[in-house]
Design brief:
There is one protein chain. The protein is of the alpha/beta class and about 280 residues long. It has 10 helices and 14 strands. α8 runs parallel beside α9. The radius of gyration is 18 Å and the shape is globular. The chain binds zinc ion (ZN) (2 copies).
Length: about 280
C-alpha cells in the first residue's frame, strides 16, 4: 500500500492511500486546488480518487471535502454524527454514511472504523486493509487512547498516529488557558508523552512504518518528536521506518507491504546462518 501524508496539523489534514488501483483520501482539510497540487507533488491525480473518508467534522479535516466531492464526483464517507455536525449540503454532495465499529469497502480497500475520544460528534480512526492483507492504521485528534482503540491499531504494518504537543511548550505558550485546558483534556489532543506510551503498546512484529502526525506548529517541534520516537524505538529494539508528517507540504511516499519486516528479518537470519 502507498501512503502519502499531504499535509498534517491544525491548519489542514489530508492523507492519501492507494492499493491495487484504488486510491482514497482520509480527510480533506485543504481546498480543491491545494489538494490537487499536493497530490501532483507525490505524482498522483485527484481525478483518480474513489472516496474521501472523514475522521470528524473539525474544519482542519473537512475544509475541502464538499467542494472536492462535488467538483470531481467523489463520494464522502462519514459517520451520521459527522454529517449532522457539518454543513455539508446533503442534496448536492455524494455521501455514504458508515457506522463506527464496522467495516466498509471502497474498491479494493477495506476500511475498519473505530470510534475515538475527541470533542467531536462521532469521530473515527481507521485501519485500512489492502487485498494482500497489508494493514495501515491512522488516528489523530484523540484526547485519550482507550483499550478498544489500542486493540484496533495494534500490530499494523504501518501506523500513522497523532503526537500533538509538548506539554511544557503548551503550558508555557501563548494559548488562552481555556484552549490549553481543552487540548490537554480527555477530549482534546495527545501529548508527545501519551502518544509514545500508546505507540509502544501498538507497534508489533509486523509494524514496519511509524509516522507521527498532527504536530502542533505552536506547541511542538519536529525534532522533539523525532528524538522521542527514536529513543522509544531504540529502547524497544524495533527497527522501523520513522516519519514525521509536515504541515506545509507532502511528507513523501511510504510503501507499506504485509510481511516485509518479517521477510527482512528472515533474510538477515538466513544470512547470519550462512556465516
Ligand atoms: Zn485536527
Ligand atoms: Zn479535531
Amino acid at each position: 500500500m502507498i501512503v502519502a501524508p499531504l499535509g498534517s496539523g491544525s491548519a489542514g489534514n489530508a492523507y492519501y492511500f492507494e492499493s491495487d488501483g484504488t486510491s482514497i483520501l482520509v480527510d480533506a482539510g485543504f481546498g480543491p486546488r491545494e489538494t490537487r497540487k499536493r497530490l501532483e507533488g507525490v505524482g498522483r491525480d485527484i481525478e483518480q480518487l474513489k472516496g474521501i473518508v472523514l475522521t470528524h467534522e473539525h474544519y482542519d479535516h473537512i475544509r475541502g471535502a464538499e467542494r472536492i466531492a462535488r467538483k470531481y464526483g467523489i463520494p464522502i464517507y462519514l459517520t451520521r454524527g459527522t454529517l449532522d455536525a457539518s454543513r455539508i449540503d446533503r442534496a448536492e454532495t455524494p455521501l455514504i454514511v458508515f457506522d463506527n465499529d464496522t467495516t466498509f469497502t471502497i474498491g479494493e480497500l477495506n476500511v475498519h472504523a473505530r470510534k475515538i475520544i475527541h470533542d467531536a460528534a462521532d469521530p473515527a480512526c481507521f485501519v485500512i486493509e489492502a487485498r494482500d492483507g497489508t494493514r495501515v492504521g491512522i488516528a489523530s485528534d484523540l484526547g485519550h487512547v482507550d483499550d478498544p482503540v489500542l486493540k484496533h491499531l495494534k500490530n499494523c504494518d504501518g501506523l500513522f498516529f497523532e503526537s500533538n504537543h509538548d506539554l511544557d511548550m503548551l503550558r508555557m505558550g501563548t494559548y488562552p488557558w481555556s484552549l490549553k485546558r481543552r487540548i490537554m483534556s480527555r477530549f482534546g489532543h495527545l501529548s508527545n508523552d501519551d502518544s509514545m506510551l500508546a505507540v509502544q503498546r501498538m507497534i508489533g512484529a509486523e509494524t514496519q512504518t511509524l509516522c507521527l502526525i498532527h504536530l502542533s506548529q505552536k506547541n511542538n517541534h519536529e525534532s522533539i518528536v523525532r528524538d522521542m520516537a527514536a529513543k522509544l524505538l531504540k529502547r524497544t529494539g524495533a527497527q522501523l521506518e520513522l516519519g514525521i508528517a509536515l504541515q506545509e507540504r507532502p511528507t513523501g511516499v511510504f510503501e507499506v507491504r504485509r510481511g516485509r519486516r518479517a521477510a527482512t528479518t528472515r533474510a538477515v537470519n538466513a544470512q547470519m546462518a550462512l556465516w
